[in-house]
Design a protein that fits this description.
The protein has 8 helices and 7 strands, in the order H-H-E-H-E-H-H-E-H-E-E-E-H-E-H. The chain is α/β, with parallel strands linked by helices and 188 residues long. It has a single domain, classed as Alpha/beta knot. It starts with a helix and ends with a helix.
């Protein structure tokens, strides 16, 4: 009987007040993962909010919202972001290619997340020390624009083996950000 109680206690779920959460101000003052997220014409407000939440979880430097991508404050973004729009730095830029060219001139490595010729499978993409990466996620139907794909330093593809070969943008963002977070070595 004691073994059963120990097993239950060993796997006790943490309460919210035990999660050691930082404040939005603490987040802003924290050292950031050298990752930037670019949303290229994302139409779903829930996807945008979910990306903010992922960015908060992994201390992402900044999110750029481009084209038709909606900006906070908006109740449907807030619904999935759960306040992450207050912690994560973000900026709206109308034209994605202008942003890509600007970041490239600042020596930021641009990686579009897309299915393309000569793409690198995510598990084979290696990060370099002292490099900041901007990862571009595209429209739910059309993906990352060809102009942006062509201007990218790398195209990273998430391997998929089913019939759809399509992931929701918020899922793609979670997969890629986690993978790069681990490869960069930002285990906090």
């Amino acid at each position: 009987m004691e073994d059963c109680i120990f097993a239950i206690m060993k796997n006790r779920k943490l309460k919210n007040n035990e999660l050691d959460r930082i404040t939005p101000e603490g987040f802003k003052a924290s050292e950031k993962t050298p990752l930037i997220i670019i949303l290229d014409n994302i139409r779903s407000l829930n996807n945008i909010g979910s990306v903010f939440r992922t960015a908060d979880a992994f201390l992402i430097q900044k999110i750029y919202l481009c084209g038709i991508t909606a900006t906070p404050p908006h109740k449907d973004i807030h619904k999935t972001a759960l306040g992450a729009t207050d912690s994560v730095d973000w900026e709206y830029v109308e034209n994605t290619i202008d942003l890509v060219e600007k970041l490239t001139s600042e020596n930021i490595h641009i990686a579009s997340i897309e299915q393309a010729e000569k793409s690198v499978s995510l598990e084979n993409f290696n990060t370099e020390k002292d490099t900041t990466y901007a990862i571009v996620f595209g429209n739910e139907v059309k993906g990352v624009s060809q102009e942006v794909v062509s201007a990218s330093d790398t195209v990273i593809e998430i391997p998929q083996y089913g019939t759809k070969h399509s992931l929701n943008i918020s899922v793609s963002c979670g997969v890629v950000v986690w993978d790069l977070f681990v490869k960069i070595g930002c285990r906090l």
